[in-house]
């Protein structure tokens, strides 16, 4: 019986890949400090778990302010405003970075580079810098999210612009429409559903980010959370975590529903 | 004459829905701006501070790179170890939450539900909790990244599993394979390339995340933001930012090349 030959493998390449992976792992795992456990680790994790399962319900609403609902509302407001700012600001970037909107490869390249530069710049670091500029509080968080989200939204928007059908634009150009009319009547209707859908998606991400911005003092629910952690008030940590999870799940559901309707 | 020549025109579509949406959006935005105290005047008064800060940041203090290189290596190490742990745990979870591997609703739905809950918690929050449990150092960062990676990798992988070709699955069932053989020979060959791509993608995300985990004391280069910003050493801050950017871009480049090769 003639068996089919087994496909030849490039042994050298495999040895190179697996060897370097092995070295990487030896280096990485050997540097992990395994004696870093505190003696109290067990106790604290038990306290956290019991705190999460018996949350401090009184914290949900306090008449004098600084409660869970107001913190969550603040977080939501930061996410809404930050997302809106970035959705507006990224539109010029999107057209700048898309291949079919400008002929010169150099322009597209610089646009794409700018966007990836903004994307790599962590929002928390941006928030730290804005705190230095406008002082601690929600506004610094809004500005940080607004600027950071341009990176991702601009990239997604520009990809949306790149796949539009050129037909309507050509038809309008043939009837003598100027650039702005072409944009408004041929390009915009094609890209708008995509833009809205991506903006909603980014809003979901920004809501998660906004809930941690407070850890460094940029407003939202993160500030009471980090205070509760530092004072070892695990019941309060529990209710705040629950609040964040419920809010994120609800907003994800609503936003997912809207995104399905739009596209 | 003019009475005769009046043609029947279609009535334009009603714009009530559009106006209502715009009104609602504007309402949301104003409420958010009110809640976060965001005003243009504050932005304008903050801008001079911001430019002053940016001026202080150039030129970067290049000599500082020597001080932060160990922390950068620790960041990479945290990302490598965290991603690996996440990848290992993600495999069974992805299999359990794929509805074509385990047909019973009672298996995949609860697993998927827990997975969704885990994904709502931002990695910095996880890190803050683990810092409270294990104390300062890279260990809590690694755990936080591990759990965070399970969320991403398992979700992407189970979606890939659900879209695999049914043929091999049916033929394995037909020859009487047990569940493990069935998974090994019919599921894994179809998704292994996707799985590795997702792991690489998560690694890219984790490098960025690891670079800020230090802000809550979970190891890595993030610790140095606090240290340098506290002393207003902005030239060092810009060094950290640029160094992180370069490392992230290099890793992204290689990881992206590898991902392109794999698919």
TrEMBL record, chain A:
**Where does this protein chiefly localize?**
other
Q: What keywords tag this UniProt record? A: Membrane, Transmembrane, Transmembrane helix, Transport
Q: Where in the cell is it found?
A: Cell envelope; Cell membrane; Membrane
Q: Which GO terms describe its cellular component?
A: cell envelope; plasma membrane
- Keyword Transport: yes or no? yes
Transmembrane residue ranges: 12-30, 76-97, 124-147, 182-200, 212-231, 237-258
* Record membrane topology: Multi-pass membrane protein
Q: What is the similarity comment for this entry?
A: Belongs to the binding-protein-dependent transport system permease family.
In Swiss-Prot or TrEMBL terms, this protein is called: Phosphonate ABC transporter, permease protein PhnE
Automatic annotation (TrEMBL), chain B:
ABC transmembrane type-1 domain segment(s): 72-255
Q: Which Pfam families match?
A: BPD_transp_1
Q: Which PROSITE patterns match?
A: ABC_TM1
Q: Which UniProt keywords apply?
A: Cell membrane, Membrane, Transmembrane, Transmembrane helix, Transport
InterPro entries given in the database record: MetI-like, MetI-like_sf, PhnE/PtxC
Its annotated compartments are:
Cell membrane
Q: How does it sit in the membrane?
A: Multi-pass membrane protein
Record-annotated membrane-spanning stretches: 16-34, 79-102, 207-225, 237-255
Which molecular function GO terms apply here?
A: ABC-type phosphonate transporter activity
* Any one of the GO CC terms: plasma membrane
UniProt similarity note: Belongs to the binding-protein-dependent transport system permease family.
Q: What is this protein called?
A: Phosphonate ABC transporter, permease protein PhnE
Q: What gene does the UniProt entry assign to this protein?
A: phnE
């Amino acid at each position: 019986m003639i068996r089919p030959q087994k496909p030849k493998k490039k042994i050298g390449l495999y040895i190179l890949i697996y060897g370097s992976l092995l070295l990487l792992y030896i280096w990485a795992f050997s540097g992990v400090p395994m004696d870093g456990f505190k003696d109290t680790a067990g106790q604290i994790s038990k306290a956290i778990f019991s705190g999460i399962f018996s949350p401090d319900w009184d914290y949900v609403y306090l008449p004098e302010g600084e409660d869970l609902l107001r913190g969550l509302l603040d977080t939501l407001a930061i996410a809404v405003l930050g997302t809106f700012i970035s959705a507006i600001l990224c539109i010029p970037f999107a057209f700048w970075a898309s291949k079919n909107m400008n002929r010169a490869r150099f322009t597209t390249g610089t646009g794409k580079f700018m966007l990836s530069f903004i994307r790599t710049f962590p929002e928390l670091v941006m928030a730290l810098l804005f705190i230095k500029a406008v002082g601690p509080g929600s506004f610094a968080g809004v500005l940080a999210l607004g600027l950071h989200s341009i990176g991702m939204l601009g990239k997604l928007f520009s990809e949306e612009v790149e796949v539009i059908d050129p037909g309507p634009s050509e038809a309008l150009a043939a009837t003598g429409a100027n650039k702005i009319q072409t944009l408004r009547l041929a390009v915009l209707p094609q890209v708008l559903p995509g833009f809205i859908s991506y903006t909603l998606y980014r809003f979901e991400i920004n809501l998660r980010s906004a809930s941690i911005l407070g850890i460094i003092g940029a407003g939202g629910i993160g500030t009471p959370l980090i205070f509760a952690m530092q004072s070892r008030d695990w019941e309060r940590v529990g209710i705040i975590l629950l609040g964040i999870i419920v809010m994120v799940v609800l907003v994800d559901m609503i936003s997912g529903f809207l995104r399905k309707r739009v596209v | 004459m003019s009475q005769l020549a009046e043609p029947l025109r279609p009535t334009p579509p009603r714009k009530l829905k559009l106006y209502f949406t715009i009104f609602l959006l504007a309402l949301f935005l104003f409420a958010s701006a009110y809640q976060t105290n965001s005003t243009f005047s504050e932005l304008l008064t903050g801008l001079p501070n911001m430019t002053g800060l940016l001026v202080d940041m150039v030129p970067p203090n290049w000599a500082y790179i020597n001080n932060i290189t160990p922390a950068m290596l620790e960041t990479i190490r945290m990302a490598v170890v965290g991603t690996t742990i996440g990848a290992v745990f993600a495999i069974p979870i992805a299999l359990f939450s794929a509805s074509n591997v385990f047909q019973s609703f009672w298996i995949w739905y609860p697993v998927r539900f827990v997975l969704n809950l885990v994904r709502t918690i931002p990695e910095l929050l996880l890190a803050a909790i683990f810092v409270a449990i294990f104390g300062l150092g890279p260990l809590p960062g690694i755990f936080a990244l591990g759990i965070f990676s399970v969320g991403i990798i398992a979700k992407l992988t189970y979606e890939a599993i659900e879209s695999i070709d049914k043929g091999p699955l049916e033929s394995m069932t037909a020859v009487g394979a047990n569940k493990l053989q069935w998974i090994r020979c019919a599921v894994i060959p179809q998704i292994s390339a996707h799985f590795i791509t997702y792991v690489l993608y998560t690694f890219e995300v984790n490098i960025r995340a690891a670079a800020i985990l230090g802000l809550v004391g979970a190891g890595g280069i993030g610790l140095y933001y606090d240290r340098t910003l506290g002393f207003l050493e902005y030239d060092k801050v810009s060094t950290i930012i640029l160094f992180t950017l370069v490392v992230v871009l290099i890793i992204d480049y290689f990881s992206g090349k590898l991902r392109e090769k794999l698919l």
